[in-house]
Protein: GST N-terminal domain-containing protein
Amino acid sequence: MTFYDIALAPPIQKSACSPNPWKTRYALNFKNTPYKTTWVPLADISSVRGAFNIPASRKFADGSPYHTLPVLSDPATGRILGDSLEIATYLQKQYPSSGAGDLFPPQELGFVFGRDLELHAPIAEAAVEGHIAAYAKFNTNVDAAFSAHAQLGVQEFPFDPATAEENKAEFSRRIGVPWEMLGISGEERGKLLRSFEETLGGLASLYNRNASGPFLIGDRASYADFIVGGWLHWARGTLPGEEWKALKGWHNGIFGRLHEALEVFAQID
Structure:
């Protein structure tokens, strides 16, 4: 299989911090399904995705398509998929006995981010059936919780220096705000960090249900952990070092332990 991930600053294996591709990478490694990574520069994502004729899974607020990754191509079945949850459900259905087992064990996933967001690329909840619907709702709420604090990752975002200005200009065009105005510092940043910590407290309460940890259902990872883990990679790659260190210690170190435990599924080819 070929897995299409987003190339950022060199070395790309070190700077990879896009949350949705990380959800897919975790799932691929968990299922132990052989794959190779094709790294796609930010400016080429639309053309690469368009070549596969995969509709955008998200849209900007003005209705225009938001083309992003991951994409997974499986020549064994001829399937090409372009959404992280869709890829995970496909892997579980197509390769049920591979790797570490079931990606979607039934479990209670009651985290809700109860704030309305005016996102520039609204998050669409995937259409799935059965108990996996709880994972889709969890994915939507976790995405919303982290996205609400994404401004914290602007200054340290690991653009490829060779195309940084071009990429910033494109993001500014899409959002309608100059890139330089998206950064946040001082008391405003401190306020957003406190909001971030408080918000993650709702997630921490889910992890506290099982004292054995470090995963939601104890010592066994599931796709729900990969959803959170994907965003933890975003935080590691975009927050200043001292803030990432602080985040790992929030709520008695739950997220630091989770990030470290997920390293067994974080191999990059």
Q: What stands out?
A: The mean pLDDT is 92. The domain at 2-101+115-265 is CATH 3.40.30.10 (Glutaredoxin).
